[in-house]
Batch of 4 targets.
Target 1
Amino acid sequence: MRSFAAAARAENLAAPQGATQQVGSSKVTGWVRYYDQQRDLIRALKASGFDVWIVSASPEPVVDVWARGVGVEADRALGIRNTTEHGRLTSHLKGCGGVRDGEDRMITYIDGKRCWINQEIFGVRGPAAERVQPADRRQVFAAGDSDTDISFLRDATGLRLVLNRNKNELMCRAYDNGDGRWLVNPMFIEPKKRKTAAYPCATTGYTAPDGTAAPVRRTDGSIVPDQQDTVY
């Protein structure tokens, strides 16, 4: 799996920006790039004594290969982990917190990122790994670009960096900046255009677990007002 990921990485890094590729009956993006700014940030954090990890909802053997390209070793990369049987990967998933191996309902995604960070980085075991930990057992800095990153971003005690991909809930929380610890930056390659309408934080910015739209709420239950795209 790692060699397959390495070959795909090499092919897509070598392809010109804007290239496409045929997958089944669809044309999809056929190029990829690392952000130079991402490498610079990781180097700066490491030089300042931070323990830098990558946490992704991609298969861990793939994450391992891509992480090395920004100077993060495989033992500092977390992704979706499959169980093994007789030395082979199975179609079932490793569990976290109170979820046992093979139950297939806890991956490094949304609240699962919190669980895996608590379990693998901070050594919290059992159901407690699924809960927000005391400040001295949480990450100081976190960065993300998706609504699915919100749990582990909010857990960060120092700063939270958000790359703006026009994701409603994420941008509502980042621009609301209730505790003064959120940083917003446009994408570095082909950035999304500035959103002309306000983010619908007060009405439909949050997607509930059952898929329905709802207002974005702060920890105290108050509703986040609609937010303008101001980072540009």
Note: Helices lie at 2-14, 36-47, 60-68, 111-121, 150-155, 168-176.
Target 2
Amino acid sequence: MIEDGSKRTVSGVLVKVLVHRREDRGMRLEEFASRCVRQGEVHELVTTDHGVGDGSIDRVGFLGFAEIRSGGVIDRGDEVRIGGQVVGTVLGFDACHFPNHYNILISREAPVTGEQIALSPESTVQFVQSAP
């Protein structure tokens, strides 16, 4: 049974580009498949090639921090676009820094940093609902 109806695209803007990678980060994938985000919040965008597995996320590349301009719901599987380029899909969330911010984990073939894919501050960030 499909539980999700249609939703708006959550959008924001990149406020800081990050340039580092880790092989031993020790993030823990939250069990929640979605998180609500509010206008004005800032969250960290992190790429990984790990799957859901046991929830342990070590191999990561940090893209940057994004300010939410249009709040809503971010779901596992949403497509993540920055500056018009697709950077991956939402794998889930790590809350080690919450309530300051979530780490929004983005699944892709290999982790990359914001610098590696030429991101820049003020680039548009979008979380677009995946097709059912």
Note: The radius of gyration is 13 Å.
Target 3
Amino acid sequence: MAVLVGKPAPDFTAAAVLGNGEIVDAFNLAETIKGKKAVIFFYPLDFTFVCPSELIAFDHRFEEFKKRGVEVIGVSIDSQFSHNAWRNTSVNEGGIGQVKYTLVADVKHEICQAYDVESEGGVAFRGSFLIDEEGTVRHQVVNDLPLGRNVDEMLRMVDALAFHQEHGEVCPAGWQEGDKGMNASPEGVAAYLSENSDKL
């Protein structure tokens, strides 16, 4: 499994269904996220089991990502037509409804291979990648197929990255928006731990 953290996010162009329901033949990652943070998440297949819960969770938090200037993009090996059909299936019938973010069709498996999240069965593991404004991967996590991801944790990572970018301090274990950061020095560690070690 490749570690992409610290490396440029692999670019791609593929068919997709946009958040407004429009089907496009050539959605390009680099053009879409230029100068913005982005979250790319991979999931195994449309019309399956754990997947709709994750896609709905991302949709429920879409405004929180948008407020932070983060583009959200889902990817699976299904076609754009399957994505569209799933979007047009109500949640009560196992669909995802009109999710507000883009779903990319990786029918040739090139994208999941570029991000090294393709399972032996050919579908993507539940990989999530946070990309900064320069197009660099800053955080990744990959879950096995039965294990649904925590979308709130991705929001926490977005906030932690923004805090570090703004203040230059690092974010210790369990850091949440509003918490103190840590100066990345022996003195900074000592000062932080003297005040906060009992909360860790």
Note: The chain has a mean pLDDT of 97.
Target 4
Amino acid sequence: MDERARRAASFEHGVAAYQTARPGYPDDVVRWCVPHDACDVLDLAAGTGKLTARLVAFGYDVVAVEPSDAMRAELERTVPDADARPGTAEATGLPDACVDAVTVAQAWHWFDERAAAAEVERVLRPGGRVAVVWNVRDARTDWVARWTEIVHTGDPLDTSAREPDLGPAFTPPEHRETSWSSRMRTADLRVLAASRSHLLTLPADERDVLLDRVDDLVAHHPDLRGREEVDVPYVTRAWRATLR
């Protein structure tokens, strides 16, 4: 198993941290990603259901495909109205032309891009839409930049959000960025760090060193020290494209 595949598989062991500390997605972004007249939506690599929950709340019929048994079990618990199924981005197990839209949140960088684009093309109905979304912490805030530096210490992979290469079957992707914030407990900044694939795959002693550095940041940074909660600034980066 190569490093990227190993990292992608690590979330099987980080479900509790992921569900506790990862943010959801702004409603206006969800509306932008999915056509208003869509009925059937595939949430691909749905994880614990952070985006799935918003899609269900908007009234779509949602199939949530997730390869991790542990993450899918959490999704079934938290979003029981979604149709959760095992599968991968490259092999969803769904029939041809069965959905109006496909969403991918926080996951496109883990895929075999060419195979995933072909699978999305296969399951979409003519004129259907695909949307690829990332929540990215806004490092223009000093403590966020320092937290990010700690969490990515020694990280060999570039997992930055970027425009997906969907191929000629799709229109050129449109791009949108949305700034917002998520309120969370300062104590959970350690949990948020623990949910990252880099830390999930480190030896326990190396992981603990980085998590202790996060605790030290919370204890001493002037914007965090003595506070029980903080607004974590995010930029949600989204791309959408239509099947020709």
Note: DSSP finds ten helices and seven strands in the chain.
